[in-house]
Fold:
Amino acid sequence: MEIYDEAELWSRDHIEQTQLIRLKSTIKQARKSPFYRARLDEAGIGPDTITSLDDIRKIPFTTKQDLRDQYPMGLVTVPKSEIVRMHCSSGTTGSPVAICHTANDLNWWSDLMARCMYMVGVRKDDVFQNMSGYGLFTGGLGIHYGAERLGCLTIPAGAGNTKRQIKLATDFHTTVAHILPSYALILGERLREMGFNPEEFPLRIALVGAEPYTEEFRKRLEKLFNMKVYNSYGLSEMNGPGVGFECLEQAGLHIWEDAYYPEIVDPETGEPVPDGVIGELVMTSLCRQGMPILRYRTKDLTRFLPGECSCTRKHRRMDRILGRADDMFIVKGVNIYPMQIEQVIMTFDEVGKNYLIQLENDGFGDVMRVKVEIREEYFVEDMRSLHKIQQKIARALKDEILVTPQVELVESNSIPLSEGKAVRVQDLRIKK
Ligand code: ADP
Ligand code: ZN
Structure:
């Protein structure tokens, strides 16, 4: 197996020994911020408290609110002159937080990202097109620097402007791209409209992440473009992309444990859950100096996959993200995640590139409407067959979520596209 970094082949023992050393120095570094000094003192954590990795549980969690309260530079642990870049989370769920990096932090991050890309077969002679937004969003520069480190010809195309994306990819023969899932299907459809066959598009690999998507979605994308799709997970608080990445096996995302310490906890109690059980991912940075973060509650729901990966890397794998704890909505007493809906509708060939879940209250109770874009070729058919498609989707959804939704079939391009990350749920219910 070709590797980018020897850390990929470390044994469990070696990984854990290194983690403990790095955890201790991270705590020491974190204490340089007044916030963590007070937090750790309050919890009675001194220089000798942590003697094993399990001791990490003595450290209080850090929440998004903590990061907001410390905005802009309250958690920085080096002189300001040492900070060379800052990023913000995209603010999908509220006001942004700022993350500050030293030159060395950026070096680590680029290396981790390069490691991810190398793992799925990206090499120096690939042409890499980054179709995600640049600016404060980490999916821009974060992935860009990884691609350059590998030596790829790197095209910073940015988000949107599909016509230009297609021109660049055709002219420069782009073989690898970074695409947000919600954008990938749009690109495919636009290609078709312009008379291209997406299968003949030069892409051989796509790194797809930044928002949740299902296995069904991946399959659809791989078939559409005749390419391999690898799931890329990260969050600004832990640098950005490069935290978790699928290997060639496509069987869960390896978390680079030499750089991060992952935990999965019960979101209610904060206690660890056994492997295989879904909970909230909690992450500690082990290599960041400018702004270390301890036990960050990501709100992302996933599980550790038990057992070893056939690729032989020992870094633990997590399942694809089921959704954010905040994404869950309740209809008629049933807890539902948007991805449960996607998983069902993406299996229908008739379904196009976009969908939207709308929640309303009709005065008697909750109504859940699923608006589904239908591909052009199915829209020309008669009412009866449209009705059949609608019923088929509604029945399949009911089987999955146990609530019967109103399924509304709409024409291609009638659901508005959001800038940046996709909005899958609109809650129009009057809050009591
Ligand atoms: P924001 O939290 O404002 O969206 P970020 O840009 O830092 O800010 O995004 C990080 C979040 O994006 C993660 O916490 C997770 O919810 C989501 N995310 C990132 N990658 C993936 C992925 N591969 N699958 C599912 N969700 C992802
Ligand atoms: Zn693997």
